[in-house]
Amino acid sequence: MEKEHKGKNITWHASRVSVAIREQLLGQRGYVVWLTGLSGSGKSTIACVLEERLVREGHPAYILDGDNVRHGLNRDLGFSAHDRDENIRRVGEVAAMFSQAGVVAIAAFISPYAKGRQEAREAAGEAQFIEIFLDTPLADCEQRDPKGLYKKARAGQISDFTGIDAPYERPQNADLVLHTERFTPPECIDQIMQCLSSRRLLAPRLASKMDLKS
Length: 214
Hints:
Strand order of the largest sheet: 2-3-1-4-5
Radius of gyration: 18 Å
Number of helices: 8
CATH superfamily: P-loop containing nucleotide triphosphate hydrolases
Number of domains: 1
Order of helices and strands: HEHEHHEHEHHEH
Helix content: 25-40%
Number of strands: 5
CATH architecture: 3-Layer(aba) Sandwich
């Protein structure tokens, strides 16, 4: 599906190196692991442990973290509904580029709106997108409150905070649901690895000799 854009005189320049060649070079398929859930649900922790596990097992991976991208790529965005939408749109496109390069992109974002998550899925492609919902109860997230954000939101110091005075649209068909209040990070990672294995995303695609015509 052709994407809408505001620019004029824009032409898409296709690479002479196919996705298949890139994946053959790295010996793996590229894909996006999208972690969504409330603040404090454990997205960043799970992302870091997953990245380490994948890399240790020979799968190049990289984390796109909600806070980190706002230091650079999305530092011009605030937290209005429009800016949150744009934040996820940009990240979805970047994650798709990583996957097309044969790298595992791990995106850890609250991503509260179903529309934004669906657009990220469409950017990557259905077969290359794994949505993981950290279904951690609000009470547990608020009790953890690692950044003190819930406390500020309750005190009225932060407005439009997801889960308090801004909505979170729960995924209805996530590829995997994790309950981080019940399982340790390593146990959650085991569940993710099983999910990836069932989707045949961990099987290497190495060939004895690269075919540059493929």
